[in-house]
Amino acid sequence: MTIIEYFNGSFAYPVQDSVIEVALGNRDVSTGLDSYDVSINMKELVFADVLMTFVNSPSFEKTKTVANDFSTEVAGFSITGAERKEFRRIAQTIYHKYEDTDKYDLPLTAINI
């Protein structure tokens, strides 16, 4: 099973291959690798990156357009505010676990100037 197939099976929401490919590429992981050749920590970090894509992406609702003899439907999904908050919490937990300081929210500290 390729790493792309692995991640396609990891989410309940539809994820375009391009989203997974970008997350893998940002972490220097080849998209053609077998999933067994990618470490658990790298899989978790890519998983967190894809979750953050959900957090920052708009939701897509199912729509139907009818004009004259033409009809089209676009299926989609909706992510609630509570789900976005939970996805962010999970991603931040993973980033902290692996000390990925470029990704997680660092606490604000006051500096006396």
Looking at this protein, list some descriptive labels.
two-stranded antiparallel sheet; 44% helix; mainly alpha
**What general outline do the C-alpha atoms trace?**
globular
Main sheet strand line-up: 1-2
Characterize the largest beta sheet: strand count, sense, and whether it forms a barrel: 2 strands, antiparallel
Q: Helix-strand pattern, N to C?
A: HHHEEH
Count of all domains: 1
Mean pLDDT: 82
Question: What does it look like?
Answer:
This protein is mainly α. The protein has one domain (3-97). It has 4 helices and 2 strands, in the order αααββα. The radius of gyration is 18 Å and the shape is globular. The N and C termini lie far apart (55 Å).
Set out the fold topology:
Layout: H1 3-8, H2 17-26, H3 40-56, E1 63-67, E2 70-74, H4 81-97
Antiparallel strand pairs: 1-2
Helix pairs in contact: 2-3, 3-4
Give a quick summary of the entry:
The chain is mainly α and 113 residues long.
